[in-house]
Specification:
9% strand; mainly alpha; 183 residues; 6 helices; 5 strands; PSF2_N
């Protein structure tokens, strides 16, 4: 299947979500299990009520089967997201968030809303944070030149969203600079 032109130089959102599933997350297992041997690495035995660290994809499967409780990551709390929103509004730099915060938040909110305290408020804060960061990324156009663009602390999804536009803009600016130097 041919991809739309906008996605040809970028990942699809599904591909980014797939990549994010390889992150680790803590769970509290509800069942005892021996160590699990995977190609990537071994997963420690599950001994309730002790926490275990597993891949997000495994945590989501276990959660759907009611075999674990997902420990809400610190960055997905009301307090943490409010601080990040304040930083976004008061600083030029993007605030520090996990590289896959958007994808992980979506996956966790979809699959384990009962494991995330104040999930409704979290959704609102994430939406506001995303909008603020999108505005900042657009403002980055004001300082765009044909050699360099510095935007630290963007997530993979945010990079992916702006990549096609910035790539095209960089190429056009280079082309115009070559013409100017040739005259």
């Amino acid at each position: 299947m041919a991809l739309p032109r906008a996605y040809q130089s970028a990942f699809t959102p599904s591909e980014i979500e797939f990549i994010a599933n390889e992150q680790k997350i803590k769970i509290i297992p509800n069942v005892r299990l021996p160590a699990i041997h995977l190609i990537q690495e071994d997963v420690q035995p599950f001994r309730p009520p002790l926490t275990a660290e597993v891949f997000v994809w495994m945590a989501l499967i276990l959660k759907k089967e009611n075999k674990c409780t997902i420990v809400c990551p610190e960055w997905l709390t009301v307090e943490h997201l409010k601080k990040r929103q304040e930083e976004e509004e008061s600083h030029e730099e993007f605030s520090k968030l996990p590289f896959h915060y958007m994808e992980l938040a979506q996956l966790l909110i979809e699959t384990a809303p009962d494991d995330i305290p104040n999930v409704g408020q979290i959704r609102t804060l994430l939406k506001n944070l995303r909008e603020t960061r999108q505005v900042k990324a657009r403002m980055g156009l004001d300082v765009l030149d044909d050699k360099w663009l510095g935007m630290n602390n963007l997530s993979l999804m945010e990079i992916n969203e702006i990549r096609p536009f910035f790539s095209k803009a960089f190429e056009e600016m280079r082309r115009l600079n070559i013409k100017d130097k040739g005259q």
